[in-house]
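Action item from last meeting closed. Structure (466 res):
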């Protein structure tokens, strides 16, 4: 009836679809163990679809208030009254059908609600059953977790104990290594000191034997040439000269002991390289003469930087040492050597710890001869102990019995300027490294300078350029 009056609604088809949905939503039996979460998910989905169909059926079961849109054309649009009459007549004819449809929709909705409650109950039972089945596994898991944690705790305790024992062994090994290193350092220091002493003693004995051999040969030769009385009368001066030569080996050993090692002095003298370079001494194309060259440390510095240098020393042993190292050195008195040189001949005259061995008149002669033999623009360098350091001026200076007297820095500067040197400057050198006084207080700074100040100084001057 509805289908013939309203072609949009197919009641039979709609009812058949409702029956299919209900059959598809029927729950499984309570004793059926095959239900699962997949069934619950599908049932929930089917109930939602059913609810959508019921809403559609409910909409179409209501009395129409206007013509369908597909009939909104001629001749149905000629009279509004006709449309109203027809709609009321339609509502009257299908009134009972609407009641049936409404009751059917209500029943189906109640049934759907019942099915939804059944699905919820099944879901709860499913969850409860799953929980019951999983409970033994939970207990087993807790037991395994507990045992695992205890095993980890025991292993952690064992590892901490082993780590503690290993740290103790490492600390013990470190202490042993430190003690061993200290022992090695002490042994090396003792060996180095012993080696230096042996080298010094060997050098002394070597040159002492050479001097004794020379003296013995000298006496034998003279003995073969005449009587003992003739030897004593004619060769007294020569014997005294030979005795003087014997002192050279003693002083060589003394300086090797108290001057400092060859390497230490070599490193100290490198301080003057920059001063020479700034003075452009190499541009004069002349030699550097080192007075009192000693063991040849300054000559080696000059050779390393490419300067031509010669040395002179009155000590025969020192001369032989320098010559054995390949240096151009002659045995002579420093002042005598300068007097033999022509004027304007040298690029630089140097003397490290030599002027404190000279008398005052000899020093004045040395300064005058130095400025004479220098080329214009040449320079002079004299290094000597610093008496401003009271420990040096009052004590250490007199360690060397050949020293004359300490030389005051400003006094030396004055006499160099008096001789004609220009730009005379004083360089204070070699301060004591460890100073016990605080340096930030002026009163302590004065004490520090007096007792721990520079141990040496250098006086440097330049000859006027043309």
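Sequence:
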């Amino acid at each position: 009836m509805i289908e013939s009056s309203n072609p949009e609604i197919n009641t039979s088809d709609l009812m058949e679809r409702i029956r299919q949905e209900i059959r598809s939503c029927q729950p499984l039996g309570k004793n059926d163990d095959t239900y699962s979460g997949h069934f619950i998910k599908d049932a929930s989905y089917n109930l939602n679809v059913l609810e959508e169909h019921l809403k559609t059926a409910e909409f179409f079961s209501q009395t129409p208030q206007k013509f369908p849109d597909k009939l909104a054309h001629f001749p149905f649009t000629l009279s509004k009254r006709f449309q109203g009459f027809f709609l009321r007549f339609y509502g009257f004819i299908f009134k009972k059908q609407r009641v049936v449809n409404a009751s059917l929709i209500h029943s189906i909705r109640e049934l759907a609600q019942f099915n939804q409650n059944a699905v919820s109950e099944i879901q709860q039972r499913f969850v409860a059953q799953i929980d019951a089945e999983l409970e033994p596994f939970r207990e087993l898991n807790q037991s395994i977790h507990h045992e695992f944690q205890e095993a980890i705790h025991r292993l952690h305790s064992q590892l901490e104990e082993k780590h503690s024992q290993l740290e103790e062994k490492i600390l013990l090994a470190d202490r042993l290594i430190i003690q061993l290193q200290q022992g090695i350092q002490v042994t090396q220091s003792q060996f180095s000191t012993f080696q230096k002493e042996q080298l010094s003693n060997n050098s002394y004995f070597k040159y002492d034997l050479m001097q004794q051999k020379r003296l013995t040969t000298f006496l034998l030769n003279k003995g073969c040439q005449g009587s003992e009385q003739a030897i004593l009368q004619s060769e007294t001066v020569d014997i005294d000269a030979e005795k003087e030569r014997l002192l050279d080996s003693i002083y060589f050993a003394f300086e090797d002991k108290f001057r400092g090692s060859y390497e230490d002095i070599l490193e100290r003298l490198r301080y003057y390289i920059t001063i020479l370079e700034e003075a452009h001494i190499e541009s004069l194309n002349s030699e550097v003469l080192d007075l009192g060259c000693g063991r040849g440390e300054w000559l080696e510095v000059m050779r390393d930087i490419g300067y031509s240098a010669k040395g002179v020393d009155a000590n025969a042993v020192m001369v032989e040492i320098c010559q054995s190292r390949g240096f151009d050195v002659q045995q002579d008195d420093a002042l005598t050597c300068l007097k033999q040189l022509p004027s304007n001949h040298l690029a630089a005259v140097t003397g490290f710890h030599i002027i404190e061995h000279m008398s005052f008149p000899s020093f004045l002669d040395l300064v005058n001869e130095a400025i004479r033999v220098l080329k214009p623009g040449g320079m002079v360098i004299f290094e000597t102990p610093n008496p401003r350091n009271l420990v040096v001026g009052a004590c250490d200076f007199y360690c060397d019995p050949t020293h004359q007297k300490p030389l005051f820095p400003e006094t030396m500067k004055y006499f160099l300027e008096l001789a004609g040197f220009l730009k005379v400057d004083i360089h204070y050198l070699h301060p004591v490294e460890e100073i016990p006084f605080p340096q930030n207080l002026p009163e302590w700074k004065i004490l520090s300078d007096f007792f721990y100040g520079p141990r040496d100084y250098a006086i440097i001057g330049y000859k006027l350029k043309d």
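Note appended to the action item: Residues 95-225 form the longest helix (131 residues).
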